[in-house]
């Protein structure tokens, strides 16, 4: 369990940090302005120019598709452990991952295609995703049921001749606001009569298929996150060829399991970067202002918070590295306790630290002048997305209790 | 210290609750739609029709200016203790207080005028405010300094002949987004050489005075709260007659002290209403959905949270009533420990309960489909506005330590 | 809901505080010495002289049996609301309540006898208890089962002719260590076949009945609390006349319900006194020592804790007063939510404040030089005794959910 | 930063766990009985037989002095990283470390002698300590001052001819209760006029030197921890030869710094073992009892706690391993942030988990029937010993702020 960074990773980290200093941080305000300008011009749902400008630069420097595990199409792929420190850095600016073609949900979708897709499916969808030419969304959660229990999912995927016909309403389809979003991976029931965990399947649905209606962008706190967006989508008699099925009927849970591990750990890695950013902003702010006769940094209540923040970040990072190591070495299934742990730990940790940072900034903290409120909204939502805290804690507890199983009848 | 509701208050409560059932809750979606429609039409900064429609109904039922303490212009005024349960109800819908002409910052501004204004000032500004014809803003906080320590405030108010000339930048001027906002109460330095607490004064500034520029609405967690708004405002060589001074030069702190007590307790009363609303939504949600084979309400983790929420609300309400009682009987100055306590307790309590309620709602909790995320943004900001938690805790601690003063030299 | 103190209560408070200043605080070290001396002499399980010396003084000043509600035998009895501020003061010194014949579990036992006892039972047991001549214990909890669910209680109470024959093992029989403890009130099953809540009965058992074996004093965080003690007791074929039954067969739950309300609120009242004492000690300590160039009281981290402590105490006290008021006016059954709330709130609040006070005292805080560690042990145990937090939170949540009941089938 | 266990460590772990299963757990009750028997016989301050019986067995199996870093006298010494998982296991039973000659404060004292002692000092004291023939204490903390700031320490060490003459009162001299405790390492001022951090020195003082009076064992919560004990000790004109000085006059701080790093991390390692034990006990308990119709383990509130506990332990362990790794590779000084972090994290984490475990055990949790209350007392004290949380948080915060230093004058 060696967490040291290899020379290859050290080089990528250095390159990435240089890139952030040179091209990301200086463009944070630019990004905001461009979105604002688009919105004022009547449509915020268009690609943001600064991202498009930065993508070729990132690609040039070898900072492209870093998330991708070693595979036939990515012979130089990184392990989860190698990717972790890089992904963490990308988390420091909310829109940064897209610059490196490493943004959710595309990374999870690309991994899903790589693992479970047929060659034809890969050619059709994986290639343009890897090239950053199109984007994708993942349609799982539904507004009408407690989707924290995925067996509740109701969307119908009915076989009809050589087609599947899909009916259902999905929401929180992140990224579906982008006009380049061309692919939906949809989870739904192919066989309501099958055993609970074999009812669901996953189907590839082109975003322009007739019957699809994007109802609205869901605001997260007050942010619509345009042009990315979290969309509510109605599917009415949406028809796709049976070849669009992933892996096999009834294997939706299996794919979800395989997809969610990497998706979750990427979120956690980025979340650690968010927390580092928030702590950095906090430390700068309390040193730059005075109140009641001394720097705010000299009021010891802030020492408590800064110290707690540092302790929390260090611990969450190490646990994330352990989870990454286990995923690399013994697989997502054996690592499921650790994946569940970081999924609980990282967003809760970051929410607390961002909250302290907001408090340190006074009124400025809740505005757009600092990225804090926006980060809070995103990370708070992460305590619900990809399984709420309660479900992951349940998983951890079940595994823990099993270690000390007591049979009452003894 | 009798917290029972008098028959008069009981009647008003009943009337108010009937009004909410009949006219407020059913119009929550309408309000959203109207703001959205205004925004889509190019300007969200106009009065919302549903509020204008409801105002006369509220007035008709005697639900108007309830916040106003007994005085020459309000012979039927309520005490703080009497107003508390009514204000709490108004807090249940974010935009409701305006319907009853009881919204911040107008209520605090009206109290300030009533207490410290000359007759001419009252005629000019208090009357139209009491009638709901105009609105007002309070310009104290500044972006450039830690305004938590009000001695930091830099805005210059320079005497020049029969005028004051004002220069400074203010922000978080809540309500200044409304086109009917006609009056700014501005805090600034008349004498930088005076003893620290006698440097500041308060001046009445008509919103249409030359030299005033409203820079932008400050978003709060992504919400611009149009048409109310929290504005950043630049004042450049803004000139008002000396008769616009409130109370006297150098008495800004004294007024702030007098104003903030009632302003703070009103916020706390409303915040308790917010918490009740959040808990109610939580209880309904967990009973309406199932996961893992039983109602979410039957998972005991939710019992812990519901019980804690109920304990927290009950306690915060009682402490608020005590503070109100003390303000009524011994005055804001003697009650300053209790005012500081509720200012810390109420928003922290409500933030926690709203957070649990959001979690109970899953993804829906962060969207506009429920009022929770919006309420969170508002209440979280309240932990900073009108003095951040840290400052109020400092006040409480200082008073507590003084009770057990130890002199080291003994 | 008037929480003001009546002149009668004000007089008693003043008298009680004078008594504490004159006779309690100065004797805290004496009490410790006497117990230590008794222990060194081979038996700590004998009455402590200082208590015996103070009792007549307290009685003389009218500070005797203050807990007792108005009744035929206590025509001047106090209401719960009146007793609350007095009981709180008594809580400031752990052994103080006995000086006023107001200590647990005697007060709860006396109330039980007063409410549910026959005249003969009252003559035999209530009179000497009121006189402070004997003491009593309450035998409910059992080591073998989760007694948090009282239906689990297994102790057998078998009718045999004119006797009941009792077999069972009880523990945490507080006060049973005292050689003057003459009466046990025992809960056990008279009818295992009856409906769940009618299986249990309560029986008066003289402590010297054959078949009773006091196994051991249970240490609480290392304290045996001699000579009071929390005893484990075995009952083997213990035989008492049927006349010793309280109220009726199968009515044990009913009595427990009636007994536990007052018992719990008394604990909470005292707990508030404990918290006040801890905060007072904390404030004195941080003002009396310096570290890193300034008084510990000037490190703002302590301001946060002191302020939080004051907020927590004020709120818990008000909630306790509300519960007392409701018990007085609408009865223990209607007040059960509030009783459950304070039973959770008060000990958790006090544990946190004592913990901060310990931290403020450094090493001294965990020793016998200050009462803090001992108080922590006692109050921590109170989070379990008389129903653990989890059970009370369950009660509160059930009542809350019922207010917003949703029927899924609608 | 490779945290994998080497084969050597794996073998030692396996051996140690076998030893615990065979000889430690089965003797926990025996230990309690023997102490109780000694106490009943009039003197608890004598070695406990079961420890003496187990020591040769441990030594035989190579489980002796494992704490000792590689050095001339310990050619097979382990690194901190290697020792961590072994020390953790030893923490599972409070008295276990002595069996392996790995108990505090002897380990810290032995390291101090090894690092800073002269050959003569090593021969005289280190050898018998390594052999387990004598024990030692560390006399630093003083009752009269806030010892959290070590510059406050007042004990006088006055040069007088070829002797030092020591006067002062020390307390919390752990282990000084043991009759075999032969050596005190005493910190005191040799030069009150020197710069603050060069006033203090460390001196080796034989426990039987005239002028030493052991005043009393300090109870920790209610535990005296006999025969180990935490003693208050008066030194009056205690005279030792100048050769007993460690390292040099005025170098006390330097030694303290060097000593406390390893001492602290050992405490943290053991604390993780304590937390694991508590969680194990919790998991067993909630599976062994029923309440309200189901196993306590099936109430989801316990899932939350178990999951949080597992997350907290994993993270604290990883951070401890990181600190150990840094101490091994870059030294205690560079690792001081990480050492401070684990010193805060580990005891707070363990206190919370033990508290949950106590709650899960009901009344039994606070008694001697389970090790929980005793462990709580010990670990709670650790939040004060070797520097209170506040001081360590201050260190962490200072280092963090320095990373983002802002100069206000810019």
From TrEMBL, chains A, B, C, D:
Domain annotation Acyl-CoA oxidase/dehydrogenase middle: ranges: 137-234
All copies of domain Acyl-CoA dehydrogenase/oxidase C-terminal, residue ranges: 250-398
Record carries keyword Nucleotide-binding: no
Entry keywords, A to Z: FAD, Flavoprotein, Oxidoreductase
Cofactor: FAD
Domain named Acyl-CoA dehydrogenase/oxidase N-terminal: residues: 10-133
Highest taxon, organism lineage: Bacteria
Transmembrane segments: none
EC number annotated for this UniProt entry: 1.3.8.7
GO terms assigned for molecular function: medium-chain fatty acyl-CoA dehydrogenase activity
Assembly information from the UniProt record: Homodimer.
Family in the record: Belongs to the acyl-CoA dehydrogenase family.
Protein name: Acyl-CoA dehydrogenase
Organism: Pseudoxanthomonas sacheonensis
Organism placement in taxonomy: Bacteria, Pseudomonadati, Pseudomonadota, Gammaproteobacteria, Lysobacterales
């Amino acid at each position: 369990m060696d967490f040291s960074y290899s020379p290859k990773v050290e080089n990528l980290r250095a390159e990435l940090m240089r890139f952030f200093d040179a091209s990301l941080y200086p463009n944070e305000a630019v990004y905001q302005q461009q979105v604002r300008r688009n919105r004022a011009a009547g449509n915020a749902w268009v690609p943001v120019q600064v991202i498009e400008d930065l993508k070729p630069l990132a690609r040039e420097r070898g900072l492209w598709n870093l998330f991708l595990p070693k595979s036939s199409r990515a012979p130089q792929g990184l392990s989860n452990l190698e990717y972790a420190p890089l992904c963490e850095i990308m988390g420091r600016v909310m829109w940064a991952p897209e610059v490196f073609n490493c943004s959710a949900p595309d990374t999870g979708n690309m991994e899903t295609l790589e693992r479970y897709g047929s060659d034809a499916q890969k050619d059709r969808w994986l290639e343009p995703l890897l090239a950053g030419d199109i984007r994708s969304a993942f349609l799982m959660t539904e507004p009408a049921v407690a989707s924290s229990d995925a067996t509740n999912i109701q969307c119908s995927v009915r076989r009809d001749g050589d087609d599947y016909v899909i009916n259902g309403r999905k929401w929180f389809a992140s990224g579906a606001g982008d006009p380049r979003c061309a692919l939906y991976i949809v989870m739904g029931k192919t066989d309501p009569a099958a055993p609970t965990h074999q009812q669901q399947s996953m189907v590839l649905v082109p975003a322009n298929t007739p019957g699809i209606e994007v109802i609205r962008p869901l605001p997260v706190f007050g942010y619509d996150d345009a042009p990315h967006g979290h969309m509510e989508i109605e599917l009415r008699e949406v028809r796709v060829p049976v070849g669009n099925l992933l892996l096999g009927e009834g294997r939706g849970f299996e794919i979800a399991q395989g997809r969610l591990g990497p998706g979750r750990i990427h979120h956690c890695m980025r979340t650690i970067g968010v927390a580092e950013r928030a702590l950095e902003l906090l430390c700068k702010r309390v040193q730059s202002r005075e109140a009641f006769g001394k720097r705010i940094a000299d009021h010891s209540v802030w020492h408590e918070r800064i110290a707690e923040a540092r302790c929390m970040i260090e611990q969450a990072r190490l646990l994330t590295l352990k989870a990454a190591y286990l995923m690399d070495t013994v697989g997502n299934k054996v690592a499921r306790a650790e994946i569940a742990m970081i999924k609980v730990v990282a967003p809760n940790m970051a929410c607390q630290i961002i909250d302290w940072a907001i408090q340190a900034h006074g009124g400025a903290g809740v505005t757009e002048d600092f990225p804090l409120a926006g980060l809070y909204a995103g990370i708070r939502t992460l305590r619900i997305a990809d399984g709420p805290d309660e479900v992951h804690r349940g998983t951890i507890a079940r595994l823990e209790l099993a270690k000390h199983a007591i049979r009452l009848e003894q």
